Amino acid sequence: MGNMRLVDCLCYLTGKVFRNMLACYGPFIKDYNLTVSQLFLLLALYEKDASTPQELSSKLALNSSTLTGILDRLENKGLIKREVNTHDRRSIIITLTNQAKEIKDALWNIYEKVNGELRSALSHEEIEELYKIMTKLDLKADEMQNKT
């Protein structure tokens, strides 16, 4: 066994930071009865309503079973609708309901507030460097997965 510690693992470190940052949204979205995953799915739909599950899965980096569970819960809450795709009857389109559109500004404000507060810990240059580093890691992980 090597001398590497758990805290030396990039997956451990990024996962820990990721979970900690996501938890920052909790106090702000509890009144909307949303999870962070549901919030981000709604934000993706606010950017592009009438999206396919494949588009959402790709944008949010979620597998289809995880996405389906989030969609089921949002549909049960009356925030999204699944409709037959008129261009391809074999697929569906996910659209926002009026109820979801009514809370759009509030949810975007929460997103901007939390994201802005987290970004304030870094300088503009550090943010740019972080994006470069995360992009490199993402590409390397994709490459490693495609080899297997």
- Quaternary organization: single chain
CATH topology-level name of the domain at 24-122: Arc Repressor Mutant, subunit A
Broad CATH class of the domain at 24-122? Mainly Alpha
Uncertain residue ranges: none
Mean pLDDT over the residues: 93
How much helicity do the residues have? 55-70%
Side-by-side strand order of the widest sheet: 1-2
Based on the coordinates given, report the CATH architecture of the domain at 24-122.
Orthogonal Bundle
Number of DSSP-assigned strands: 2
CA-to-CA gap between the ends? Answer: 24 Å
Number of helices: 8
Q: Could you name the CATH homologous superfamily of the domain at 24-122?
A: Winged helix-like DNA-binding domain superfamily/Winged helix DNA-binding domain
* Beta-strand share of residues: 5-15%
Instruction: Write the element-wise H/E pattern from the N-terminal end onward.
Output: HHHHHEEHHH
Class computed from helices, strands and strand pairing: mainly alpha
Radius of gyration: 18 Å
Shape type: globular
Largest sheet: 2 strands, antiparallel
